[in-house]
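job 3f2a | input accepted
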Amino acid sequence: MLDIQGRKITLIGSKRSALASGQLVLERGGIPRISEFGREEDLDPSAKSWIQSHQIDLECAGHTKDFLKESDVIVLSPGVRIDSDVVKIADDLDIPVLGEIEFAFQFCPKPVIAVTGSNGKTTVSTLIHLTLQKAGYRSVLCGNVGQPFSLFIKNIEQSDYVVVEVSSFQMESLMAGSQREHFGALQLKGFKPYIAAVLNFSENHLDRHKDLQEYFDAKTRIFLNQDENDYAVLNGQYSEFKDLSLTLKAQIRFFNDHEQSEADFNANQKAVCQVANILGIDRDVCRSVFQEFVGVEHRLEFVRALNGVDYINDSKATTAEAGRWALTNLQRPVIMICGGRDKNIDFLPLKDIVRQKVKQMIVFGEAGQKLKDTFQDVVSVDQCAQLDAAVTRAREHATDGDCIVLSPMCASFDQFRDYEERGRTFKDIVHQLKP
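job 3f2a | predicted structure (435 res):
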């Protein structure tokens, strides 16, 4: 267990992840410090209040060498790239750099089940968590799914398992345990989940990663520190994962391949069943959880029916493949609202299903023109600047029996803090509509 008593831990950023790490540092007797790139007047009020109440040493408009050199450890927020100037300075100063997930793991004595993939991470993580609970285990659900891992360390002894949803951003900084040992007295360890699952792989975050290979490499770093006592759970439909399995030290378990017999389960459910099988949990427990599961917020979430039209919030769909999944699972004629910040994703592979399933497309935000240019030869496309205008336009096109779905296929950061704020805004707009 990492001893940071009296150590200076510098947190890069002042958002939710950084503040959670800071709270953990305080609980462990360390000294949290914050280096924020933005201006102090732009700090979130809740962050400013926490910083002031705990008398945290704060640098704004910063990431300066003079501030960073006082650090024993630097903890990155997910939004900070591993090739950023901060990391280069830390390397020059021989200061270890960890992401929030890896930092929290230093203090976690319980087995971790880590889930990643281009799509379906939140659903699968939630279903594993619910399956563990249904089987009588005490489980914690954290990470990219909602609350940071660091927030749960304080009471982690009360749990049997920790289920962590992990994004590619959060894995960029992962290092092998042998590399971590370089820092000697700090006794750092590499992130080593007992079970690591990669659900799928498709174009995503190419605004962050230079190409698909770099994105794939980031995703598969989840297996970096596993050994023969651990398990790697992989989607058998991907040749890339078949090849990858030959290089891993962990025990391999494939799901969604031709050898599985659960014809009535979808790929996400098959992944959950494979994890449950490793843990000795009966398949009937999984089936019961699937039957009771009502879904996760912002993923094909039913909002309301109005004048014979269903309104669906799928704000979590930030990739083309997530948009495809939504269209595949919607049975009514679709008025599709999409747009936001482009992630350098190719939308062309969706043209066939858009032609088949979408009655009208409404695009908005920074990626609006790209989406219009891509799909206007297969469906009628209207373009709006803002989400509220897009909902109004969608309603004008909808008739009894249709569904209006917000399935953006883009990041939210052009107009919203995150996909959750975008989804809540959509729901607020829809609930304010008059018959």
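job 3f2a | The chain has a mean pLDDT of 91.
job 3f2a | closed
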